[in-house]
Design a protein that fits this description.
Oligomer: single chain
Distance between the termini: 53 Å
CATH architecture of the largest domain: 3-Layer(aba) Sandwich
Number of domains: 3
Structural class: alpha/beta
CATH topology of the largest domain: Rossmann fold
Order of helices and strands: EHEEHEHEHEHEHHEHEHEHEHEHHHEHE
Number of helices: 15
Amino acid sequence: MRIVVDQNIRAAEATFGAHAELVFRDGRVICRDDLLDADALIIRTATRVGASLLRDTPVRFVGSTSIGTDHLDTDWLDAAGIAWANAPGCNADSAAQYTLAMIWLACARLGRQLAGATAGIIGRGNVGSRVLTLLQALGLEVVANDPPLSDAGVNGLVDLDTALAQDIVCLHVPLTMDGPYPTRRMIIADTLRRMRNGSLLVNAARGDVIDGEALLAELRAGRLHAALDVWPGEPRIDAALLRASCVATPHVAGYSDDGKRLGTLMVYDAFCDWAGLERVRAAAAPTAAQRLDVPEGEDALGRALEAACFVQLHDAGLRALADVTVEQRAVGFDRLRRDYPLRRDFKGWRISTADGEAVRSLRELGFQVARA
C-alpha cells in the first residue's frame, strides 16, 4: 500500500508507516500527479480535496488530521465512493489553551486586568466550551451563544447580541457556507458595530468567518481591538490587518504535540477500520512533560501561559512579515506553521511556584503544580 502524507503530520511513521510506504509532500502543493499510484491521502487543512485533485486516481481513503472539513468536498467524496475521516475535537484543549494565552497577552498589551472582565463565546462546541471553562476558572463572567445547540434544546445559552456585548468576544465556530446558520463572514460591519467600545475580538476558529476590511476599519478607528490566530485569505494575509491587530499569530492555536498526535491517531483508527488492519499505536505517545520553576515574586500564571503557548514568539515572527510582498508573506506564514516548535498542552507541564493563589489557578487550568 502507498500513502501520500502531508509532511507536517505528527507520528505518521509510527502509525501509517507500519502498514504502507509513505510519501511525504508539502500539503499546499500536493497535486494529482502525486496521487496517481497512491491508495490513500493523509492531510491537514492546507490541502483542498475534491474532484480536481482525486478524479481518476486510485485513492480510496482520505484522512484529515484536523477538526474541520471545509477543505474537503465531502459530497463529492461520498458520491465517488471514497472513504474519508477527520478528527473532531482532537486539538480542542490545545486551541482553547492557546486562546487563553492570546487573551492574556492582549490584556497585558492593552494595560488591562483579565480579572473582572466579561466574555462572550460564540460557538460552544469542543473548543468554545473549553475556553468558557478556562475563563470561568480565572473568575470571569462568561456567556455563550450557539444557535444549533439552542435548537437542540440546550439551556443556558444567550442570543448573539448578548454575546457581542461583552468585554471579550471569542469566535469558535466552524466555517460553513450554507444551512440555517452559515458562518462565512458572520462577523461583518453591522455585527462589529454591536460590540462594546474598546472590546477585544478573538478569533482562533477560521479566518473567513470575519470580514477583514470591516474589522480593519474598526481597529484603525481605535474602537475595537483584535487578537487573531486565523486570517481571511490566509496564507496571503493582509499586512494592514496584521499591523492593526493587538495579537497576531499564524494559525497555530491547535498545534500542540498532544493535539497533533491525537488527530493522527483518530484518523489512523478510521484508516485501520477501513482497511481491516490491526492497530499499532505505542510509538505515537507524547513527549515527556515540560518543567517550569517560577521564582518567588514573579507572575507564575503569566509565565506559565507564555512558556506553554509562546504566543509572543510567533506574534513577533508573523509581524516580521508585515513589510514583505504578499507572496513572501504567504511563504513565511506557512514556514512559521511548518517549523513550529514542540508544544505540550497544560497537562504536559509541571510548574513549581511559591505563590499559593497561582497554585490554585494553575491547577484549575490543568497544569501539574507543586509548591516551591
